[in-house]
UniProtKB/TrEMBL annotation:
InterPro entries: ArsA/GET3_ATPase-like, ATPase_ArsA/GET3, P-loop_NTPase. Residues 13-188 form the ArsA/GET3 Anion-transporting ATPase-like domain. It comes from Actinomadura rayongensis. Transmembrane segments: none annotated. This is AAA family ATPase. GO terms for molecular function: ATP binding; ATP hydrolysis activity. Pfam families: ArsA_ATPase. Gene3D superfamilies: P-loop containing nucleotide triphosphate hydrolases.
Length: 331
C-alpha cells in the first residue's frame, strides 16, 4: 500500500479514545509516527495530564509547550504537547479578557481549580479549544503549521461529553467569548477534517464500550473514525489442537514423550499437565478473540489490527506499530 493510499484523506484532527487499559496512548503515538512519514509535521496532544507521551518517547516530562519528540519514517517530525488545564485557562483569559495577570492571582488563590471543578464543561472547552487552535494554526506563508494533529483523548465513556462542548457550555453561556469559543471548536470537531478513532482489545468489555461509544457519537452527529484492535494474540496452535485442548482431549502421554525427546526428563508429567492447561487457556482466548472480531465486523467502520509486542513498548516498538498502521491504510 503506498504512502498516499490512506483511509483518512483530508482528515487533519485524529481523536483517539478507548477504554482504560486498551493502550490508547500507545496507539495515538504510533498513529502520529505513521502520519509523520514522508516529511510530514504532526502534533501529538495529551489532555489528561498523565505524561504518558513522555514515558512512551522516553523523554523528560513535557512542559506546556510544543516539543519535538521523534522523527517519522523517511523524514517528518512528531511534536508533542501536554496541555496543562491551568496554563491553558490563563492563556484563554488573556486572549479573550486580557486577564492574564489577574488569572495568575486567581491561581494562587485556588480559584482556577474551583472554577473548572464547578464548571467542568469550561475545562473541556479549554482543552478541545487548544487542540482545535493547533489544527487551524498557519505559518506566515498561509500553509498549515501541522499536517495533522493527533489527540490522546479521554476514555470512551467520556468522549462524547468531552467533544460535544456546545452542549456542555449551554448552561454556562448563551453568548459571549465562551460561547463563541465553543462554536469555533465545534466547527472543527464536526468537520470532515476530524475523525474519532476507537482503540479496543478483543475482549468483551472493551468491544462493548467501543460499540456503545460509536453509537453515542453517531447519535449526536460527531464524526466516527476507525477501530484499532490493539495487542491481538496470534494463534500458536493449529485449529485441531486448539479444539482438543479446549475439550480436555490432549494426550498427556504424547506431550510427555515430546518433552523427553526434547531432553526434558525431570518432572515431565507435571510439565505436560501445565502445558495442557496453558494450551486450554490459549484455545479459550483464541475463541474469545474470534467471537469479538465477529461483533466488530457488524460495525461499518475501517478496522486496523496491531500485534502484541512481547518485548514491551519503546520507540522501536512504536515504529513497528506505525509501519503496521501505514501498511493497513490508517495513515
Amino acid at each position: 500500500m503506498s504512502a498516499r493510499d490512506t483511509d483518512w484523506d483530508g482528515v487533519r484532527l485524529h481523536v483517539v479514545t478507548g477504554k482504560g487499559g486498551t493502550g490508547k496512548t500507545t496507539v495515538a503515538a504510533a498513529l502520529a509516527l505513521a502520519l509523520a512519514a514522508g516529511g510530514k509535521k504532526v502534533l501529538l496532544v495529551e489532555v489528561e495530564g498523565r505524561q504518558g507521551i513522555a514515558q512512551l518517547f522516553d523523554c523528560p516530562p513535557l512542559p506546556y509547550e510544543e516539543r519535538r519528540v521523534a522523527s517519522g519514517r523517511d523524514g517528518g517530525d512528531v511534536h508533542a504537547l501536554a496541555i496543562d488545564t491551568e496554563e491553558a485557562l490563563l492563556e484563554y483569559l488573556e486572549m479573550f479578557y486580557s486577564l492574564k495577570r489577574a488569572g495568575k492571582a486567581m491561581t494562587r488563590l485556588g480559584i482556577v481549580d474551583f472554577v473548572t471543578t464547578i464548571a467542568p464543561g469550561l475545562r473541556d472547552v479549554i482543552l478541545t479549544g487548544k487542540t482545535s487552535e493547533s489544527v487551524r494554526r498557519r505559518t506566515k506563508s498561509g500553509a498549515f503549521l501541522y499536517d495533522a494533529v493527533v489527540m490522546d483523548a479521554p476514555p470512551t465513556g467520556r468522549i462524547t461529553k468531552f467533544l460535544n462542548v456546545n452542549d456542555e457550555v449551554s448552561g454556562l453561556a448563551k453568548v459571549g467569548p465562551i460561547r463563541n469559543h465553543a462554536d469555533t471548536v465545534m466547527k472543527v470537531v464536526r468537520s470532515p477534517e476530524t475523525a474519532v478513532h476507537f482503540v479496543t482489545l478483543l475482549e468483551e468489555m472493551p468491544v462493548q464500550e467501543t460499540m456503545d461509544g460509536i453509537a453515542e457519537l453517531t447519535a449526536v452527529g460527531l464524526p466516527v473514525g476507525g477501530v484499532f484492535v490493539n495487542m491481538e494474540h496470534e494463534p500458536l496452535l493449529p485449529p485441531e489442537v486448539r479444539a482438543d485442548a479446549a475439550a480436555g482431549r490432549l494426550d498427556l502421554e504424547d506431550v510427555e514423550r515430546g518433552l523427553k525427546a526434547a531432553g526434558i526428563e525431570d518432572d515431565a508429567d507435571r510439565i505436560a499437565a501445565v502445558l495442557a492447561a496453558e494450551a486450554a487457556e490459549h484455545a479459550r482466548r483464541t475463541a474469545l478473540q474470534a467471537r469479538e472480531k465477529e461483533r466488530l465486523e457488524t460495525l461499518d467502520r475501517p478496522r486496523y489490527t496491531l500485534p502484541l509486542l512481547g518485548d514491551g513498548m519503546d520507540l522501536a516498538g512504536l515504529h513497528v506499530l506505525a509501519t503496521a498502521l501505514r501498511d493497513q491504510g490508517a495513515a
